[in-house]
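Something for you to look into today, if you have time. Could you write out one complete protein record for me, on any chain you like? The space below this message is yours for that.
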Amino acid sequence: MASFKSSLHTLLVLLAMSFSIHAHADSKAEIDRGARTTLQQLLSSNADAKKLSEKAIAVLVFPTVTKAGLMVGGQYGEGVLLREGRPVAYYNTAGGSFGLQAGAQQFGYVLFFMKEAALKALNSTEGFEVGVGPSVVVVDQGLAKSTTSITAQDDIYAFITGQKGLMAGIGIQGNKITKLNK
């Protein structure tokens, strides 16, 4: 029982520290600046992402997502939807997980929307649950470097970029993207 209390205490401290970074809501200008930097870095370092950006109808960029956990975990970040290079709406991504996991990390998250139907699902009043609805293909950095072509036949392609910190484990995870009133 003491071990469980210690683990729970450690988890709460980790979550408090990692989410205190996002305790204040980022301004539109901060989100826009971070999103443009994150997207530019991804496009300059990944040929497949560059190809997708040329065909995408919109790009949703979360410049910084913070994730932490010890058995139970959570993640949060704010981002901007770009259409024709211009910001059109702001979103947050939040999620929880449970399982064998420990650590904390930050990363960028970029979603290339290839079809209008996928974009409409993003703007539903309930929020967009990753894994439910349009198909999302997560392009692993290792895989992306060896991929010779992406056909852009799927609804959404997701890239994780700029990972910092260490988070390890396996478990059940849920993630939801919700439009912000900014």
Remarks:
- The chain has a mean pLDDT of 77.
- Helices lie at 2-20, 28-45, 47-55, 116-122, 141-146.
- The longest helix spans residues 2-20.
